[in-house]
Structures are given as structure tokens and as C-alpha cells.
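#lab-general

N.A. 3:47 PM
ok so I finally got the sequence cleaned up, no stray characters, all 107 residues accounted for. can someone with queue access submit it? mine expired

B.Y. 3:52 PM
send it over

N.A. 3:53 PM
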Amino acid sequence: KYEATIYNQSELDKLFKVVKGDPLELAVILGAFYGLRRSEVVGLKWDAIDFERGTISVKRTVTTINLDGKCQEIEKESAKTKSSLMTSTSNVADTPYLYSSKRMLSK
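B.Y. 4:20 PM
back already:
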């Protein structure tokens, strides 16, 4: 059975330092704060983040498969488990970092 490993604070600090300024920084932060799977982070769109309510909703996932020697992305409008479909309160949605990321990526 798969058993996930959980980063401690020191490991998270090192991870955040390594991705600082990298295009993956936002994805890493969202994954670390909410325990999202890679497919859930990749499936997030800005409409899943409600800045007024401070919530993030995981509604879709994106995975990559190898089909006949070619990589293809598969997008599903549902997450892996029912608990993934729930909306969670977002402390990140209230931060200037997420606002500035949205502005930068929307250009």
C-alpha cells in the first residue's frame, strides 16, 4: 500500500527556497499548503480560487499518459476522490502573493 511522506518545516523551508522565483513556485506552494496531488495542482484554473471567500475548489485534474509512444494530457472534470471535490478554506488566497501571481500570469 502506498504511504505518503510528509515534509517537516525544515524540508518545506528548503523546498520553498529552491523554487523561489521559479515558474513552478506557485504550484509547489499550493501543493504544500493543501496537500494536493500533482494532477490536482495542474488541473487548477483561476476560477477555482474565490478571492472574496478565501477558498480553493478542486474540480478538475490533468494527468499525462503515454499512448503509442506519445505523451498526451488527459483532463477530467472530476477529482480522484469525493473529498478532493470539496472546497477548502484558503489562507493563500488572501495573500498578495497569489494576487500578484494571477496578475503576472494573466498578461
